[in-house]
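Work Package 3 (structural annotation) set out to generate three-dimensional models for the target panel prioritized at the project kickoff. During this period the team completed the workflow that converts sequence records into discrete structure tokens, so that structures can be stored uniformly alongside our sequence database. As a representative example, we reproduce one entry of 122 residues exactly as it appears in the project archive.
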Amino acid sequence: MFKVFVTGRDPEWLARIEEILKQTADWQSKSIHIIAPGIEATSKKLKDCIRYHIRQSNILLTDLKDIDCQTAQEIQYALDHNIPCIGFGVDVDPCVASDCQVFSTVYEAVDYIRDCYLSFNG
């Protein structure tokens, strides 16, 4: 099973990510698990839970517009554990962009994940 951890500040995007992924060709036939906690990590317990799920993931997919501290920490945690970070957004902070594969739209990012990762993970 291919696991995608999704993060970002926009609750609407987090709620729609599964729909977005299913609209993209070839995702329906793959065994994919979407992890989208959509919660603010206000305690050590929640942060540990989020970190556990990041470590279990194959990819971190993130909305990079108006990035907050929690999202930045999640990106760094993924990178520290050799988990590729794929992001989307315009006018992305150069510090963040240097650590992520960045695309203009979520659809471009999803296509990239499909083409570069899922085509090799039946």
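The chain has one domain: 2-120.
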